[in-house]
Design goal:
Low-confidence stretches of chain A: none
CATH architecture of the largest domain in chain A: Up-down Bundle
Oligomer: heterodimer
Strand order of the largest sheet of chain B: 1-2
Number of strands of chain A: 0
CATH topology of the largest domain in chain A: Four Helix Bundle (Hemerythrin (Met), subunit A)
Strand content of chain B: under 5%
Helix content of chain A: over 70%
Number of strands of chain B: 2
Distance between the termini of chain A: 69 Å
Number of domains of chain A: 2
Number of domains of chain B: 1
Structural class of chain B: mainly alpha
Order of helices and strands of chain A: HHHHHH
Order of helices and strands of chain B: HHEEHHHHHHHHHHHHHHHHHH
Chain lengths: 175, 482
Amino acid sequence: MEKLVFYYLAFAMIASGIGAVVSRNPVHTVLFVLGLVLHQALLLFTLGSEFLAAVQVIVYAGAVLVLFLFVVYLINLKKETLKRRFIKNFSPCFLIFLLFTLIVVKTLLFLPALTSHFKARLPFPKGGSPLYFMAKNLFQTYLFQFELIGVVLLVVVLGAVFLLRRLDNPSEEGK
Amino acid sequence: MAYLNFNVIGLELLFFLIGCLLFFVKDFIKKEQAAFFLSLVTLLFALIFVFFLPFGDFTQSFRLDFFSSSMKFLMIFGGILILLLSRGYFNKYLVLNYPEYFGLLFFSLLGSFVMVSAMDLLTFYIAIELMSFPVYFLIAMGYKINKKGIEGAFKYFFLGVFSSVFFILGIAILYAYTGSFFFKDLIFVLGKKGTHWEILLGALFVIAGLSIKLSFVPFHMWAPDAYEGASLPITAFMSGIIKFSVLATLVKVMLMAFFPLRIEIGKIFLPIVLLTILGGNLMAIKQQNLVRMLAYSSIAHAGYASLGFIIADFTGYTFTVFYAFTYMIMSIGAFGLVAWLESCDKRLVEIPNLGILGKKNGLVSFLILLFMFSLAGIPPTAGFVAKFYLLLGLVKAGSWLIAVLVLLFSVIGAYPYIRVVKCVYMDKALEKVELRPFKWEFWLPIGLCSVLILLMGIYPQPFASFFYKTMFLYLSFFYFGS
């Protein structure tokens, strides 16, 4: 039963990922990504971390994708007018693509043999609230990284505001 | 068991606070140069302050030790040079003189400080991001004077995203096989397990991610455009300090995390490094623009510096850091001279137009000769010594074939530099160009660089032994101390 659910989720995720790339209507793309994110949340749920699943739904599906939808509506994207195919004819790019696909397929075939070497455990051991383990990781083991990400986000916000307000404004030419 | 020893991250806290303050310093002090002087004073203070900080851990992810504090000292020194060059560059391009410029520079330096002291792959990754994001904005700032700024910033940004993807994939693979992000666990597991190709795969992806920052050849496309689009002090920052800090951190990671696998990882590096040296040198030949030529030469020099990873022993890593430092000094000097040339006249950036310098300004001509000889690796300069050490290490490690190849490539690579010297001294001055005075903001940093280059070229022993001792003390502190 577990495997059945997992395979359903995996195939649904791959299918919606492909759909997001292939579809020509931007709104459809966003909806496909929404499907992807919801299935991902279910996958997290089966792994036993309800909290992350909830966060996934609230943050990604609830906030980020709605923001994307707003952007798509705001800038009023038309259907892509381009009708060219991805790969027109035999080109070096196509060769590289084939090579990469080969590597990925080979890795996938070897994956069951490889997983026996895995040393990583699930971050949330059974028999305990996942929230507790997550908080412990976030605020004890990885505290420094957590604070550092805050600095990175601050820098990005400062830089973006700076670029928009200063450089885009022709009236403010330096001094 | 988190050790929150705030003394250890004193330098980072200082840079974070001053960096934030710089963004709104204009609201307090109405003076034109307030931001510049504040950042200069802070950097000069930090140059001394870095020696008074206690060694130790801040949680398990950050460690201040002899290696990282001496690397930080060198980075702050480079930062001062960049700051002075920026001041001189702003004399011409006043539109760039925003306090945010200095603030972003500080945040980028903060990122490289954290990177050098990182003790696990996750911190390493986040610090790389913290180091790169301000640089994207700083390149985009070049848009004010040069329409290519946005293009360069976007190319660098997109390749930076790729770099993050590779890096995270590598970290994920390493985590899956070793079960930890921390260097101390990684080296323990690798020492027990022996060679596993899965771990090498993870290391390969980590190297691929870093090679975008170092502009190794399969991932070098962004470099000339970004270097040309950015304002020139930022170009010097990118090619000097960022490459230095990434190489120093890579050496640290090799010593601390992948030491049992160093020979195999050297084999991964071999084709990349040879391609990088050959490609960078070949493409530098036909460039007419001085900035683009130096950008390709910067690609080639990152390759030379990484020869130490092929040598894969203690001396090799030492001379990698030594070469990276030498290149940092050389590139800051060379790009500083180009910054002065560009602030005189935009046409002077084209190599065939340089003939006027030999007639009008003997000092600058001599400095150009010095830096070009050093980049080419001609004896009484630091470039020769650094290359010599690396080749010596290669021969001693038994890979003399690689040494011969590198020697041949560097002969090819000497052409573009010699051509610049020939254009300066032998070409006719074709057009009337007004030269601006060579002010202190330029001659102070460039003069410091040239003195260092000559000093390291004539008497390299103290510098080389400084780097060797840094490594040695570092390793002994890591294995036996704490």
